[in-house]
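step: validate -> pass
step: tokenize input -> pass
step: predict -> running
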Amino acid sequence: MTVRAGVVAVQGDVSEHAAAIRQAAEAHGETAEVVEIRHAGAVPECDVLLLPGGESTTISRLVHREGIAAEIQAHAEADKPILATCAGLILVSTDAHDDRVDTLDLLDVTVKRNAFGRQRDSFEAPLGVTGLDDPFPAVFIRAPVIDEIGEGVEVLASWDDDPVAVRQGSVIGLSFHPELTDDSRLHDLAFFESVLAEA
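step: predict -> pass
step: emit ->
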């Protein structure tokens, strides 16, 4: 089986996420065909989507300008998996506390940009995540914090009592960068469990 994985590539850690998706697929003896999405038309052909980190205001502007935003929303409405990391989490939230970010309203959460500090305040921490047997080496870089969650949102992990990994339906949002590690378990959790179950 080949899984068609789309990485929204208007900005951010595209190659790192592509490598993690391929690694997660190989762990199941499957193949992941990775598509870098920069324009409208590619999302409807994808089984899974990944929204990487970067600058949330820039990503928001570009996905709306290129017609990708509506396709991402349709993907979620079809209950297809989405993994949104760092700036991607900000984009899929209902409120980013920043009028420059036109959110997609896919996760019923509000977030604060750069709440964990600037680049110099970056850190790595072992994080207990629901669905994983062992702690995940979470890398936080200018990370957003989730300050409010809706009733339909499941908290998968917290750091200092703040939610940093959440799930609602087929959408998982992370404050941190799983692609900057050699550990692909969160890509596996987000994508391949549900995709392979439907195969």
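step: describe -> Residues 83 and 190 are 6 Å apart (CA to CA).
step: cleanup -> pass
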